[in-house]
Amino acid sequence: MVAMHRLMGKPGVSRAIMNQAAMFNENGVQVHADRLVVYGQTVLVQDGDRLVLQPGARSKLAATVLLLIGLAVVALSVYFASGPALILGLMAFIASFIAWRFQNVRHTLQLIGTSSSRTVVDSTDLAWLERIQAAFAQRKSQDEIVSTANTVQA
Fold first, then answer.
1. pLDDT (0 to 100) of residue 72
2. Which of 17, 100, 124, 143 could potentially form a cystine with 63 if both were Cys, beta carbons 3.0 to 4.6 Å apart?
3. 126, 55 in Cβ contact below 8 A?
4. What pLDDT was estimated at residue 9?
5. Rounded to an integer, what is the distance from CA 32 to the centroid of its chain?
6. Average pLDDT over every residue of 16-44
7. Where are the alpha helices (DSSP H) in the chain?
8. Contact 131/121 with Cβ under 8 angstroms?
9. What distances in angstroms separate CA 128 from CA 15, 65, 68, one per listed residue?
């Protein structure tokens, strides 16, 4: 620790030490000034790179099919005055709502660079991916502060 304090006064060293400290570290994802570490895999980040959050979409097919079956069974049960068929149709209607509401929607964070793009992480937790994206955006401002401090020290 004492050696780090002695090195901090030298130009260019504080940036190296700053790059070692993670600005964001949660659930196996670390955001550093010059790289992302996702579940142990290191992704180097250049100046022009940006993280883009692509929210996933819910699948409407299963919910729509269950809804139509439920409505048809309810209509037939009313026409034929069948109590058990009415209950079956209502169960299909409720199952369609559950199929729609509780889907595992996968959201994706993509690192888009000057020449290529790649998927960094995907998850069902949208808020967590937004925190990663915000930390990635903040790293640029931290990087500018450190480079300004190095210029002033020199």
1. 93
2. 100
3. yes
4. 45
5. 17
6. 71
7. 2-8, 13-20, 61-80, 83-101, 126-153
8. no
9. 27, 32, 35
Q: Cα separation of 103 and 12, whole Å?
A: 49
Find, among 94, 146, 101, 111, the residue nearest to 41 by Cα: 111
19 close to 34: Cβ distance less than 8 angstroms: yes
pTM score, whole prediction: 0.59
Residue 51 tokens, joined: 């993280």
Across-strand partners of 84?
none
| Cα torsion through 31, 34, 37, 40, rounded to 10 | -150
What are the tens digits of pLDDT across the range 98-142?
Answer: 888 888 888 888 888 777 788 888 888 888 888 888 888 887 666
